[in-house]
Amino acid sequence: MELPSANLDALRNVPAPQKAALLFLMVGSIVAGFYFYIAEPKSGEIATLQAGNGQLENEIQTLSIKVKHLDELMAASKQLEVELAKKKERLPPEEEAIMLLKQVSDLGVRLGLDIRLWKPGAPSEDASKLFVRMPVNVEVSGVYHTAALFFDRINRLPRIVTVSGLRMGSPKVDQGRIVSQTTFDLIAYAAPQEKPAVAAKPGAPVQPLQPGK
User: Fold this and answer.
1) 133 phi and psi, to 5 degrees?
2) Which candidate among 60, 92, 134, 147 keeps its CA 20 to 30 Å from the CA of 169?
């Protein structure tokens, strides 16, 4: 079957103004079709992409600020860990703290003090759980400057030991020396003992695993 051939002779007889109008309509139809079927959908996609790009840029900026703050927080955390480690170095275990108090007592004797009372109290853990106080009620007798030297030596110890509640009695002459009786509370600080992990009670029944769990 043959297709009908276009009658181009009819177009040749169309006046020039009508040809121009017809050409204008054809071009307009092509432009309109391009706009409605190609350009307009693409414009929507471009607008969506631009909005998404703007949102991504905002998220990147927000994350950059968070990362910067995170680096600062991590640096501060490391600094605190270093400071805490240094402080923990001055907190011996309780067993070592007991020996430390014994060494302090021996130090007072070597310096020439007469230890009249050495009464350890009950250890107490601080509410922060970071250290334990180990108090001792002490009473010594000796020359004033010897007692002052004793307190200075305590202050220079690498471990944390404090003196509080200092009370000095009236000075007296003993064998040509002016001596005084001094009472105070000596407190050594120790690291708290680690709590052992709670183990399962012997003989406790073991629940069997259910299939599929």
Assistant:
1) -90, 135
2) 134
Give per-residue pLDDT as tens, 79-121: 777 776 666 667 888 888 889 999 999 999 999 999 999 999 9
Per DSSP, helices labelled H in 3-39 are 8-12, 16-34
**Structure tokens belonging to residue 69:** 């703050």
pLDDT, tens only, 114-154: 999 999 999 999 888 888 999 999 999 998 889 899 999 99
pTM of the shown model:
0.51
C-alpha distances out from residue 29 to 15, 33, 37, 44, 138, Å: 21, 6, 12, 22, 108
DSSP code for 136: E
Whole-angstrom distance, CA of residue 169 vs CA of residue 175? 18
